[in-house]
Amino acid sequence: MKEPQEIRRAGYCLAILIFAAAVIHFAIAARYVEQYWLFGVSTLVIAWVQALWAIGAAVRLTRPVLRTGAMLNAAVLVLSVVTLATGDAIGAAPHGAGLSGFGDWLCAVLEAAGAAGCAWLLTADAGRRMRRPRLVFAPAAVGGATAVLLGVALATTGPVSLASTASSGSGSGMDMPGIPAAAAAVKLPTTSPAGDITMPDPGMQMASGMKMASSTACTATPTAPQQQAAVTMVDISWQDSRKYQSLAAAKAAGYRPITPTGAAVVHYLSPAAYRSTLLGGPVLDYTDPQALVYANTPKGAVLVAAMYITVPHGPTPQPGGCLTQWHVHTNLCLTKGRGVVGAVGDGSTCPAGSRNRVTPPMIHVWFVPIPGGPTAVDAPDAQVVRAAERVPAPANGTA
């Protein structure tokens, strides 16, 4: 084991690294609460444990503290990698593969360095001494570099999510910049299990690869006829689509998956309904939606939305005014038959036989209680699955 002075300096370095990891966990906890409350709470617990360990390591770096640090950070690192690479390790709703941002990568690196540093100090040669200039320089260099990287990580940690920002500003009594107070106060009851219609927040952050169909923010207060039209859109969509709560009924009606089956959320398209739209039929036929959306839950597939799709560069009617807004996806890999086989991003390319195309504009009518209500623009898959678990549904297999 190293001499006390060397131990003290090493303790400062390790404390800096792990305290920075704790700060990142504190910063991203709100994002994970939106996906699943237990995941968010576990992130906060990890943050507090890391912060307390860092304080203890800075005060006195004993062998028990080193062992605890090595095991703690190794365990958190494994949990983080598993969670971010394959989905939520706590709960059953994967939210996408791959480390999700610079902050997540930095946190993983800090934890790896902390675990390795603790293990190294436990096994280091007790007779090897470090020169005094290095003893002074090491904590300063580690602290400066970590502060810069941490600043970048926090600066690039965006708002929580589209759905969380939509819910925070939609009928919740909170300010919605750019929206008249009368519009922000809109709250319209529906028969859909998704609940009340509220106004989408124009400042909401789009998920990666997604944007609104219109480049102009829609903030006008919906008129009384538009409000009634939005309620009608939701109520009729639910009334006529609820028969498709049975996945077998949807398949019998000709709906087929156009996104990978077995995923957290799967989209089913009716070629006949979309062909009718391509030939000039109505874009918004509430009794015959072009697509249905299912979430795979532990109890089976649950119908979560009807989705209306226009033709490329086609009309995007808004019967509910700004309550009914369209969006597109820009990062999907589509086959000639418009099936989705992947997404591009972070240097990835589309699989053979597909290419990256902008989707036609689409609009959801939700049947599960996601933040933002039944006409919310979109929501993360994990939120959709959590909402689907809250509604009664017939027994289905996996979508």
Short description:
This protein is α+β, with helices and mostly antiparallel strands and 399 residues long.
Description:
The chain has 399 residues and is of the alpha+beta class. The chain has helices spanning 4-35, 37-59, 63-86, 102-123, 132-155, 162-169, 181-184, 224-241, 247-252, 271-278, 381-388; strands at 187-188, 197-198, 210-212, 256-257, 265-269, 291-297, 300-309, 327-329, 332-334, 340-343, 355-356, 362-366. It has 2 domains: 4-155, no CATH class; 162-388, no CATH class. It contains 11 helices and 12 strands. A 5-stranded antiparallel β-sheet has the order 4-5-6-7-12. Helix 1 (4-35) packs antiparallel against helix 4, helix 2 packs antiparallel against helix 3 and helix 4 runs antiparallel to helix 5. The radius of gyration is 25 Å and the shape is elongated. Residues 86-100, 126-133 and 158-177 have low confidence and may be disordered.
